[in-house]
Amino acid sequence: MSNVMGMKEIFVTKSSMPPYEEYIDMIKPLWDSHRLTNMGEYHNRLEKQLKDYLQAEEISLMTNGHLALELAIQAMELPVGGEVITTPFTFISTTHAIVRNGLKPVFCDINADNYTIDVSKMEGLITENTVAILPVHVYGQVCDVKAIEKLADKYHLKVIYDAAHAFGVTYESESILGYGDASVLSFHATKVFHTVEGGAVVYRDKKLGTELYRLKNFGIRNEILIDKAGSNAKLDELRAIMGLCNLKYIDSEIEKRRRIEERYRNNLKDIDGLHILKPQENVRENYAYFPVVFDKNILGYGRDDVYCHLRKNQIYARKYFYPLTCDAECYKGNFNVCDIETARKIADSVLTLPLYADLAVEEVDRICEHIRKMKCEYGNEL
């Protein structure tokens, strides 16, 4: 799409799509079976293939990532009013899922190296009311999973990872989804892997799987017994087929993303005042996002200036994550917010640049050229 001046619009993300004919061919049998939902053939097939691809012991597909997280928490049967240590530097869904389960979020600061929850500040937040930890693999960056596991074992806390950004990410050659009591994925259309809308819970305890199955199907135990206040979170066949099609191409999609990130890094590496995340050791990334922090004290201009400049030139980056979830209008003043200085600093200065598999290198160069021009315009020529 182009505007009246002829400049092509570049959005922060763009959904990957399988070949049209392939998807159409796969959905044709549905016109014979008429089975469109309720854990059908394609739902089960996708569940099995994802289990293999993600090195998951068990997996339960859901209609979206938010309900997957909400039901994963519900399935833990945590006491109402209990405290859950989490990060404010995340999408609002994370905090909503805690609150909608009758629990209280306790916000822990993030570390400056990779923007994940700062485990060194976590123990001081634990009280007799703490029941769980809900860390986020933000941007696909891996949390300090071993330190979190050690702390959770010490205080007998449940650990539920928000892994919405972390599809296919491994640490020390093993899936990061194996850490904690459960890890929750999002298959939203903007994610590295998608089913248009969708999500999943990865877990080990088969009893938890039984709970999840019932909760996503209205709490139904059998035809006449309903003994849980469940939801409707079943993934339908049309979206399962989209997932099956997309899964065939996931490795090549991730490789395309890697090349785009590499282009960004090469173009922006020598600009003083720009902070780009360093690759994590022993981690196989999925290149879900490309966040850049703009240091106003060094550059002479800030994130908001870059955001506006790019928009004027039909480039739509995103202030992701801003504001912090604890500052959302629905939560202001509801919870104690103490030392989250690093989270506030990053939220006020971070911008995620466009990144998707079909983004052309020429478009990456155009984005970077605008950022470099700003450096010159503010009197700091490279």
Give the SSE layout.
Elements: E1 10-11, H1 20-27, H2 30-33, H3 41-53, E2 58-62, H4 65-75, E3 83-86, H5 92-99, E4 104-107, E5 130-134, H6 145-155, E6 158-162, E7 170-171, E8 174-175, E9 182-186, E10 199-203, H7 206-215, H8 237-247, H9 250-268, E11 274-276, E12 283-284, E13 290-294, H10 296-299, H11 303-312, E14 315-316, H12 341-347, E15 350-353, H13 361-377
Parallel strand pairs: 1-14, 3-4, 3-5, 5-6, 6-9
Antiparallel strand pairs: 2-10, 7-8, 7-12, 9-10, 11-13, 13-15
Helix pairs in contact: 1-8, 3-8, 4-5, 4-7, 9-13
Features:
three-stranded antiparallel sheet, 382 residues, alpha/beta, seven-stranded mixed sheet, 15 strands, Aspartate Aminotransferase, domain 2, 13 helices, Aspartate Aminotransferase, domain 1, 14% strand
What does this structure look like?
Helix 1 packs across helix 8 (237-247) and helix 3 runs parallel beside helix 8. The protein has two domains: 10-14 and 250-377, Alpha-Beta Complex (Aspartate Aminotransferase, domain 1); 20-247, Aspartate Aminotransferase, domain 2 (3-Layer(aba) Sandwich), CATH 3.40.640.10. The mean pLDDT is 96. The protein has helices at residues 20-27, 30-33, 41-53, 65-75, 92-99, 145-155, 206-215, 237-247, 250-268, 296-299, 303-312, 341-347, 361-377, and strands spanning 10-11, 58-62, 83-86, 104-107, 130-134, 158-162, 170-171, 174-175, 182-186, 199-203, 274-276, 283-284, 290-294, 315-316, 350-353. The protein is an alpha/beta fold and 382 residues long. Strand 3 (83-86), helix 5 (92-99) and strand 4 (104-107) form a beta-alpha-beta unit. The chain has a seven-stranded mixed sheet with strand order 2-10-9-6-5-3-4, sandwiched between helices. Strands 8-7-12 form a three-stranded antiparallel sheet, with no helix packed on it. The protein has 13 helices and 15 strands.
